Amino acid sequence: MNSNNDPAQVSTRPKNVMADLPQFDAHEAAPLYEVVKRYISEAIMVGKWGPGTVLPAENELATHFRVSVGTVRKALTALTSEGVLMRRRKTGTVVTGWSPLHNLRYFFQYFRLHDKSGDLVQSETKILDYRHDLASDDEAEKLQLKDNRDVIRLHRLRIVSGIKAMHERMVLPLERVPFFPEQENVPALIYQYLLTEHSIRIAAVRETVTAQLATEEDQTLLDVQNPHAVMVINDISFDQTTTPIILAEHRASTEHFSYINEIR
């Protein structure tokens, strides 16, 4: 692990640390402690609270989230048991430097491209196509669709620091997400949206990873020229009842980035 992820480094308390937390939505469908936990872990994931950061006191967090201290304590305890946080005498609760990405519970919620140094990168998304359609026979079989074959099709581009890194197509059964946002409001984190708005937790993903020569579409969207290999990830995401919920294909250039799966 990089030295800047060493939890033994000097602890810090950034100014206006509470301002780094997103606005809390008390109406989210997930249990409150899981919502608090996710908000805190996302602040860590995106670098707002770096390694060594001392979290606010439990009562401060409870006031911010407008929940009980017990709810906050349960969230912090869970993150501590997962290695994301650690308790220090006289100091308080400290960010260890272990990203939630490395934990199985958070494994399926985040973009998994890393730069060549191994650090996680953050992406912005651009919707290329959005439409309602009917599933093909193959899609219907994989998504276990029977009478209702209505689906939502998404095609989007992932951009990292101005570099076109990946484009991906996703198919979701409309009957499972009947109020899915229109194109201009599609969330960047689909898994998070499914959890908070539909109580659908992605519990497993079955992936097939291959390498192919870039197609004409890949060359255009990823700014590459043939001969150029792209990594192709075909996956099916399953919810907590083992029902398939997303069928996807991701096509990425690895010229600047690598795809890392790490579970501990």
UniProtKB/TrEMBL annotation:
Keywords noted in UniProt: DNA-binding, Transcription, Transcription regulation
The GO biological-process annotations, alphabetized, read as: negative regulation of DNA-templated transcription
User: Organism, per UniProt?
Assistant: Vibrio xiamenensis
**Which InterPro entries does the record associate with it?**
Bact_HTH_transcr_reg, Chorismate_lyase_/UTRA_dom_sf, Tscrpt_reg_HTH_GntR, UTRA, WH-like_DNA-bd_sf, WH_DNA-bd_sf
Name of a matching Pfam family: UTRA
| A single MF term (Gene Ontology) | DNA binding
Q: Which PANTHER family match?
A: MANNOSYL-D-GLYCERATE TRANSPORT/METABOLISM SYSTEM REPRESSOR MNGR-RELATED, MANNOSYL-D-GLYCERATE TRANSPORT_METABOLISM SYSTEM REPRESSOR MNGR-RELATED
SMART domains to which the protein is assigned, alphabetical: HTH_GNTR, UTRA
**Protein name, UniProt field:** GntR family transcriptional regulator
SUPFAM superfamilies referenced in this protein's UniProt entry, alphabetically: Chorismate lyase-like (SSF64288), Winged helix' DNA-binding domain (SSF46785)
HTH gntR-type domain location is 30-98
